[in-house]
Amino acid sequence: MGTHMSKQVERRKAIKTEKKILWDLQENSGSDFPGCDYHPPDRKNWMSGLDPQKIHVNQIVWPGTHDSATNKIGIRMISRPFAQCQSLSIYNQLVKGTRVLDIRVQEDRRVCHGILLTYSIDVVINDMKKFLSETQSEIIILEIRTEFGHQDPPEFEKYLIDQLGEFLIHQDDHVFGKTLAELLPKRVLCVWKPRTSPQTKLGSPLWSSGYLKDNWVDTDLPSTKFESNIKHLTEQQPVSGRKLFYRVENTVTPQADNPVLCVKPVTKRIHGYGRLFIAQCIARGCADRLQIYSTDFIDDDFVDSCVGYTKARIEGKA
């Protein structure tokens, strides 16, 4: 018991120290960057507002959500706080400006996060279709994977093509150098990551798992995650020469050996430092590698920071 208590005391000290590191970094270095003062007048149509004829796919800092479809996961007030990473529906996330979705499914096509379940994938698809019907030039990256420990849903590739066929941007390395206008009217780039089913081939309506990569660092220590994100980002190619999407996630996650197991209070340790991360990428010379930037509980400020830096890139200011 004494050893356990001592360990918990040390853990709390480590968390306090790491929170102070980020606070001090922001106080001393600031979080300004080219485009940081831009706020899109219509987040629902921010890509349209920046002009699809001018935006190249590889210029965008794509605002994304981590574990996107968890707004109603588990049982409210009982198991939900341990797995909920977003409070908004998929539709409302898209309206707010999210353009990358992270969806995990199990064999019966229900969305899950670990062992906890929520609604059918049909809810995600219908929310996407509603958003697409109300906009004209917004492009969505949809990543769907079979959750760890689960089996692939039967005939799931066919299901996705049947549901999204008219919107799907086919797998093609040339997409990265194109403008959004050149992709339209196709508007969904769907990356399907099965566990055992065959990977999709070049030219397929769906993209294979190798086209969206990240380096997941499973920690509840905010400065550790922040610095790991920077380190892994520096190891990537600049977006101008990259033929895949690379994601950085502005999240920290509860750990089983820590008494704080609810997502929201843990991820709050890093949540407010989205702008600082972009500023530090510039300061440390790796901003040309930043591409997909995802978070828990996405908000207006996070979207604005991504869109603002995208605008600066388009204008040649970044």
Automatic annotation (TrEMBL):
Domain Phosphatidylinositol-specific phospholipase C X: 51-192
Record's signal peptide: none
Any one GO BP annotation for this protein: lipid metabolic process
Highest taxon of source: Eukaryota
GO molecular function, one term: phosphoric diester hydrolase activity
Membrane-spanning residues: none
Protein name: Phosphatidylinositol-specific phospholipase C X domain-containing protein
Organism: Kingdonia uniflora
